[in-house]
Write a structure and sequence with these properties.
CATH superfamily: Peptide methionine sulphoxide reductase MsrA
Pfam families: PMSR
Strand content: 15-25%
CATH class: Alpha Beta
Helix content: 10-25%
GO molecular function: peptide-methionine (S)-S-oxide reductase activity
Strand order of the largest sheet: 7-6-1-3-2-8
Radius of gyration: 15 Å
InterPro entries: Met_Sox_Rdtase_MsrA_dom, Met_Sox_Rdtase_MsrA_sf, MsrA_MetSO_reductase
Order of helices and strands: EHEHEHEEEHEEH
Structural class: alpha+beta
Catalytic activity: L-methionyl-[protein] + [thioredoxin]-disulfide + H2O = L-methionyl-(S)-S-oxide-[protein] + [thioredoxin]-dithiol; [thioredoxin]-disulfide + L-methionine + H2O = L-methionine (S)-S-oxide + [thioredoxin]-dithiol
CATH topology: Peptide Methionine Sulfoxide Reductase, Chain A
Organism: Hanseniaspora valbyensis NRRL Y-1626
Number of domains: 1
């Protein structure tokens, strides 16, 4: 049996050896290019690292360790979501800060879509790395429900798996400032 990836190969984080204040959260909020760009712009160097990839899909669809690709995921048959994986230190930024930004950045009430991007890969999700963060994320989601008319569809689960997107997709809007950015990604006044 092959080992299931949960942490990006591009992030130097190990829950058993990293500082107790270092954490990892994985977020799905539509097209990962815009989500990554907004988090980088808003939080800057308060984040230790942020990468884009795919999470919480069906491992059975994987034919090899490098078979979870953008092309496969956008076919819609893998169950994977486009995500950003954020490595942060709670001394610099809290999970509440990161998730409050998450609920303002996208529309968490639309099932499997953000703007014109449609499919299960564009669903809204919070994938926690441990039980404590899972409970906190569930609590924060409930606090945001009234602000979105009690219609939030965001799934909140433990992170089951994660695969890095190709280098082409990492920091995409930094490398391609005129590239596609989902118009549904903007900071809402809530």
């Amino acid at each position: 049996m092959t080992q299931v990836n949960k942490i990006s190969n591009l992030i130097s984080y190990n829950p058993s050896t990293s500082s107790s204040t270092e954490k990892l959260i994985t977020l799905a909020a539509g097209c990962y290019w815009g989500v990554e760009h907004h988090y980088r712009k808003h939080f800057g160097n308060k984040l230790k690292n942020i990468v884009v990839g795919f999470a919480n899909g069906n491992e059975e669809t994987k034919t090899s360790d490098d078979s979870i690709t953008y092309k496969r995921v956008t076919n819609g048959d893998t169950g994977f979501a486009e995500v950003v994986q954020i490595h942060y230190d709670t001394k610099d930024v809290s999970l509440n800060n990161l998730l409050s930004f998450f609920f303002r950045l996208h529309d968490p009430t639309t099932q499997n879509r953000q703007g014109g991007d449609v499919g299960t890969q564009y669903r809204s999700g919070i994938f926690a790395s441990d039980e404590n963060d899972l409970k906190e994320a569930q609590k924060i989601k409930q606090e945001w429900q009234p602000k979105w008319g009690n219609k939030i569809t965001t799934e909140v689960e433990l992170l089951r798996n994660f695969y890095d997107a190709d280098e082409y997709h990492q920091k995409y809007l930094i490398k391609n400032p005129e590239g596609y950015a989902c118009p549904a990604h903007y900071i809402r006044d809530l």
